User: Fold this.
Amino acid sequence: MSDPLVDTETAPDAPRPTGKVVVILLAAAVAVVAIGLITAPPRPEDRTKIIAAQLRCPVCQSESVLDSPSDTARQMRELIASQVAEGRTDQEIIDYFVARYGTWILLDPPASPRTIPLLVAPAVILLLGLWLIRGRLRPRRRRPAVPPS
Amino acid sequence: MIALIGKAGVLLGVLASLEMIRRGIVGFRRPERASRAYLGGATAALVVGAVVAMGALQAALLGNDFSIRYIAENHSRSTPFPFNVATAWAALEGSIVLWGLVLAGYAWSVVRRHRDGDDVGAGATAVIGVVALFFFGVMATVADPFQTLDVVPPDGPGPNPLLQNHIMMAIHPPLLYLGFVGFTVPFAFAIASLAKGEPGSRWLERTRTWSLVAWSFLGLGIVIGGWWSYEVLGWGGFWAWDPVENASFIPWLTATAFIHSAVVETRRGVLRSWNYVLVILTFAFTIFGTFLTRSGVIGSVHAFSQSAIGPVLLGFFAVILFASLTLIAFRAPVVSSPSRLDSFVSREGAFLLNNLILSILAAVVLLGTTYPMIVEAISGEQISVGRPFFDRYAIPISYLLLASMGVGTVAPYRKARPIVLWDRIRGSLVVAALAGAILVVTGIRVGHVVAIVALAILVVGPAAERLWRQASAFMAARGEGRGRSLLRVVRRDPRFWGGQVAHLGVAILAVGVALYGNLSNEAMIELRPGETGSVLGYEVTYLESFQRPEPNRLVTGARVAVSRDGDLVAVMEPRLNQYPNFQQAIGTPAVNISLARDIYMTIRRLDPESVILDVQTHPMMYLVWIGGIMMAAGGFASFVIRKPERDDLDEAVRDHVGSPG
Amino acid sequence: MTSSPDPISELADPSRQSRRIWAVVSVVGVLLLAFLVVLGSRFGSDPSLVKSPLIGKPVPDLTLPLLEGDGEVSLRQKRGTILVINFWASWCTACRDEHPDLMATAAAYADRGVEFLGIVYQDDPQAAIAFLDELGRGYPSVLDPGSLAAIEFGVFGVPETFFIDADGIIAGKITGQSNAFILASTLDTLLAGGRPGSQTVGTVQSSPDS
Assistant:
């Protein structure tokens, strides 16, 4: 279908003020943002919440210990808080729960032979997609011997 | 009696689907017989069957007919309006009836637009007939909503308390089904077009409205579901990466990819077979989502109980995919697009990037949702895949999507020279960077928030700038007012501007989610009656506890005054609703919405001496809902707004701004 | 699956193109079939059942207050005897059904050095006492303030029954409703010096309405 409204390559839409002002303004604003973010005081991190967010609530369906309003989750949050107060590391606390509930309790499955496919699949899919797109781009020609990375 | 009428309706549906298939195939083979009247007869019977089935279900609910098992298990005399009506889709069997009704409605809309002699349309009718046969067959066998009981109980337990706790739950499933089922139509036309070996993109053009309707409803359904989750479940969130949520999100992602790649095909003639793949996947994933929700193979807050329907749905999913794949393989030489892209840096390049990103996200969500099942089936080991995994991919992908939306919508087709792109986005870039600087200076120094706000401006800005400049051109050419000219610009290309409204919705939604994820606060506080405490910058006073019986439940709650700097902000009533036949009270949060933030309060424990409150603040939470609704509105707008037949101003505009898009 | 490739060849040769398309379709088809078989194999299994990694680990060092009367029970002090720990609640229907079998087994094995202990899981003590008034006692029950014991034992719901051997090692677990036969065979294995491991005989209830 040929549509007269299809926007194809044109000259710049209209003559406009020189780009210098724009570039300077842009650079200044970006600098302000960068400095502001870099010098931002570190946000107080609540280790209890960070740990609870990684654990699956055992009596719920798929909520985390952080999100679940259930009694068990509340008890687990208190347990995490007391272990944090005792000075245990994040990994020690997480291991404590894994020892009792198995790796099931981890919402982010750790790398293991069984989870390797899950962890590499997104990258494989991305490469496959890029390879397919490349096929769409080139004019008809011989297939490249090696897929581009 | 009612059960018998309902069963008759289901049976009529089965017979009508069979007849739709037969007549559809006849018309497909012999175009001269593919008349609207011929196909319409069978389709009308399907509509009658579906309406009778749903009508019987409603009559049984409103008439408290507990001799029907579905009613006895899911309804109670005390269930108030509108939850008694909504009980029709609160459990498995009834939800299939609703599915059948919506499908019949879509089938009718297809036949109404049918032109005599249209063989592909007849074929599509046959495909819809197959889908209808499946669902009415399910109603007639493994999920019979009209099964009767020998011993009639005097009353029933009522629907799941979570489902009768908020009005949103009454409208969420119908919206979702309007979305899910709607994809049957583009799927049916795709299959018929493939089977016919039809050249060109006619099937895409004719099903465009249905695709957009389905996409809009599906998005709306998902957002309303999130809203329900927020207002009812009490954890203060709206999206948990729960398998059932993912089950509706996967087809939404592929459908979003589809409506974008469809634009590329209609405009540039590329991605033809990819569009077939996408529409088939989208439809197949709606069935797969239904399977995940209803088969009991996964645990989820939203899952229906285990039932025999699981294997049937899985089988149907398999048949759809295998049949469609084979068909594509046979027709591949016909459907392969001859043309290629000229450059990756172009509008179609942006569409391609968008398709890649959405497909990857869909694949990741599908993988994450099903992977625990796969691992357990193979090794017996039990693992979980939850928010940390999904967020790790969804967050960077969202950034990429937003970035490609802003630049993509103003990139010219074929090939975009950098100077043109720069010219079209530089104004928005400056505004975005300035907005980021303002945020940082005013103290919001959180990277994600600053970045998303800037990206959101970059999504909206270039399109807004174009709208403004084109309107200016009209004003100059015609001497019309600004408002009139803006309207004229939009009406001249409703597809584009409808899309831009949807993009605006995405931008607003993204900002809402970023604010929610980064600037929300939560704290617990324990108060005795009359006591005032300070939490999250508010003074919170526990006034009293209260208890009031309602027809279907006993409501217990705490009345809490919230004030800030001495000024009363709100009196909030977080509650615990106790339903008969259910032991656990359902906590219902109190939500106070204001321009700046939501105050979200749930009872964690309530006893005579004290109350433990969970208080959360979510800044500008309404952005999430408004953004979601606006996305759907954009989808609707892009086909509701009609383009004027003739536009004498094209030339005048072109003189001023070059060609618009 | 969304990665199903656009089956279009860049090759002009139609027969090679067709062969390539069929190859792609076959690969996708086989993957799909495997996926479906895996999903299909999940029917009938309960997604809420999870295996316990605690088998072979020492019993948690807990001291819990008695449900009725004053006093406490220390799990570690029970060494030397075989201990059967049953998590239960009055709102749990399977607990109601298995309770007579637990009492009978406790009586039958009492003279062979086997002790039973109930741990009340997330329940109102008065409701728990009423439950025992109705169904009988036979062995003591303790309360679990703060659900700490439930977390220590990795409990997902009730009923769950753990078997502790004479050395204080968790040697077996029954998930779901037990019965006299399973209890007896597990205890016999244990008394003979074996490790019964974990068995799943039914579902557990994580809350009164699940």
